Amino acid sequence: MSTSQAHVYAAVRTPFGRFGGALATSRPDDLAAGVLRAALERTRLDSADVDEVVLGNANGAGEDNRNVARMAALLAGLPVSVPGTSVNRLCGSSLDAAMAGSRAIETGDADIVLTGGVESMTRAPWVLPKAERAFPAGNAELVSTTLGWRLVNPRMPAEWTVSLGEANEQLCEAYDVSRERQDAFAVRSHRLAHEAWEAGFYDELVVPVEGVDLARDEGIRPDATAESLAGLRPSFRPDGTITAGNASPLSDGASAVLLGSAGAADRIGREPLARIAGRGTHAVEPHRFGYAPVEAADKALARAGITWSDVGVVELNEAFAVQSLVCVDAWLERGLSDPEVVNTRGGAIALGHPLGASGGRVLGTLAEAMRADGHRWGVAAICIGVGQGLAVVLENEAAAG
């Protein structure tokens, strides 16, 4: 049996664009091709040495259909001999892609895997269901594939299929998280994202999109304050706490993470950023999805052989402020040292959340933050609609001492 270990060698992403914003005219397969090329350009790797391309994608209903990983690999100029497969675990798709790639390396099925993900929520199409009988006389309704439940099976319990926002309002009630706390968390996300960009942290992680004038993530609002967010109306309940200000925005973008074995370093032409030390998946009731990363991260830590007290930095995708706060609170009870180690360079509330790309973003940001700050252990985690969560533990071997 192979004893190979999987490592992160490079990570890049596009700037994340707002819904209908600067990336609205960019096809998702082109966005994905761009980051695949950029990741390879960070190396001296012969692209024919890539054993597999694995990309995450949540919608897959429009220009990202027909296996976007294979399409993007071809558009990126990889040899036709390099296969590609697409993963759909909704918001966790690109983190799942990295997990799948790392397993292939550890089992010896692959030596180098190019992973990542893409989503254009702007370009996600409307779909028209086929009629259940011939020649219906009535009208038919187009259904948006941008976000959330659609074409729901009537056998599903109604409490499972509430909107993502309503599900998080229920989470807010269950864990008593105030509107003020959510808004303060959102302000922090914008502040830290802006500061990270100003400090040059994202300069090497983010690559431009060809033909698009967008240098930074489009959703960052450095002037956001608790007072300005307090003036926003609730989005899902008249008396609710979740607003457009304390939830992640609809977004467009792509990410790529190059994985390889330790023995692939010479061909890749650089030392790895981090080792993938543990993986975890967990599932809960569909409408409790925001809490699922809690147990997923605990499983990943156990498989890495460490505890929360060892963790120096966490990248948690901020689908909603309330969901993020509930996860952080749980981890603090289990030994996490300080809530300030979470999302030290901002999170999805500011940066954006293009569903299929976000897992690659959190993993790449985590590896770079660990390198920059000298942390040995870090956790990347993400919640997923329909009641799932994923987590990966990274080890910065250079900081092992």
Main traits of this protein?
12 strands; Peroxisomal Thiolase, Chain A, domain 1; two-stranded antiparallel sheet; 401 residues; 10-stranded mixed β-sheet; globular; alpha+beta; 11 helices
What summary fits the major beta sheet?
10 strands, mixed
**Distinct helical segment count:** 11
CATH third-tier fold name of the domain at 6-122 and 249-394: Peroxisomal Thiolase, Chain A, domain 1
Top CATH class of the domain at 6-122 and 249-394: Alpha Beta
Structural class from helices and strands? alpha+beta
CATH superfamily of the domain at 6-122 and 249-394: Thiolase/Chalcone synthase
Query: Percentage of helical residues?
Result: 25-40%
Can you name the CATH architecture of the domain at 6-122 and 249-394? 3-Layer(aba) Sandwich
Straight-line N-to-C gap: 29 Å
The backbone outline, from C-alpha atoms, is globular
Instruction: Give Rg in angstroms.
Output: 20 Å
**Mean model confidence by pLDDT:** 97
Percent of residues in beta strands: 15-25%
Strand element count? 12
- Helices and strands, in order, run as EEHEHEHEEEHHHEHEHEHHHEE
Low-confidence stretches: none
